[in-house]
Amino acid sequence: MTFYEDLVSGGRQHADTLVRVQRAADRAVVTLDDPDKLNVLSAPLVQQLKAALEELLADRAIRAVVLTGADPGFSAGGDLRMMADTPTALAAPEGTTGIWRWIRYEFGAIVRLIARSDVAFIAAINGPAAGVGLAWALTCDLAVASERARIVPAFGRLGLLPEVGTSWAITRRLGYQGAFAYYAGGEQLDAQRAHELGLVHEVVAHEQLLAAADAWCTRICALPAHALAMTKPLLRAAADGSWESTLAMEEFAEPQCFTTGAFQEAVRGMLPNG
């Protein structure tokens, strides 16, 4: 087997449960659950997370998913022991493409599931978030942080680049110079500073983190299903589109909403004697 196939096979054979899923009607909480290792992204954890998200997204009843970590942290990022095996991968016939496959088809598969689904994802950052774990949090549609959260730009000190969508996320929030300073400075950001920079949407007491995330789920699930499903891809496309193309997308999408029963019922409810 190739280096990539070995990683996938080994991950699938792992016996311990490293990802917990709690469902409740129209929402779910997905917890990275390897706290003794700060929820490091080992092959088994990544495989279990991908499988859990695929199962949830196949369920039409699920409208919102909270992604969090078991205390004391969200995720320490990539597995350093796995990274130490890269010389073995480089010596294999497939060379660096084995590493590329893991990054694209495993790490990257998860950000694509988060971004491309019609389900809303809320990151509940409960402690340190670094590397690819941070990339997943930044890909979510909303990020709520506990007062214990720490945003850790670990790429630079390992001699790595921002990956799995991180460069896209931080340049849009911080601008080019802010993103460069974030990367080159390598300083951890506490929850309040992350909020000031726009990396998280709100900061709450640690004990209230999941309640705050659930409150967002309630707001989101109260929206008509078509509104969430249509607005999420529209806003994500607008982040890269021109004003003209975004305006055109809105003009084509909005008339469809007028035809829905949810819109017509809402209008009748707002009219006097409706």
Structure characterization notes:
By secondary structure, the protein is an alpha/beta fold. The chain folds into 2 domains: about 5-220, 2-enoyl-CoA Hydratase, Chain A, domain 1 (Alpha-Beta Complex); about 225-270, no CATH class. The chain is built from 12 helices and 9 strands. It has helices at about 5-15, 45-55, 80-85, 85-90, 95-115, 130-140, 165-185, 190-195, 210-220, 225-240, 245-260, 260-270, and strands at about 20-25, 25-30, 65-70, 120-125, 130, 140-145, 150, 190, 200-205. The strands form 2 sheets. Strands 1-2-3-4-6-9 form a 6-stranded mixed β-sheet, with helices on both faces. Helix 2 (about 45-55) runs parallel beside helix 5 and helix 10 runs antiparallel to helix 11 (about 245-260). The protein starts with a helix and ends with a helix. The mean pLDDT is about 90.
Brief digest:
This protein is an alpha/beta fold and 274 residues long. 53% of the residues lie in helices and 15% in strands. The radius of gyration is 20 Å and the shape is globular.
Distance from first to last alpha carbon = 67 Å
Q: What is the CATH class designation of the largest domain?
A: Alpha Beta
What's the helix count?
12
Low-pLDDT parts are: none
Using the CA coordinates, give the radius of gyration: 20 Å
How are the SSEs placed, and which strands pair?
Elements: H1 3-13, E1 19-24, E2 27-32, H2 43-57, E3 64-69, H3 80-84, H4 86-91, H5 97-116, E4 120-125, E5 128-130, H6 131-139, E6 142-146, E7 150-152, H7 166-185, E8 189-190, H8 191-196, E9 202-204, H9 209-221, H10 225-238, H11 243-258, H12 261-270
Parallel strand pairs: 2-3, 3-4, 4-6, 5-7, 6-9
Antiparallel strand pairs: 1-2, 7-8
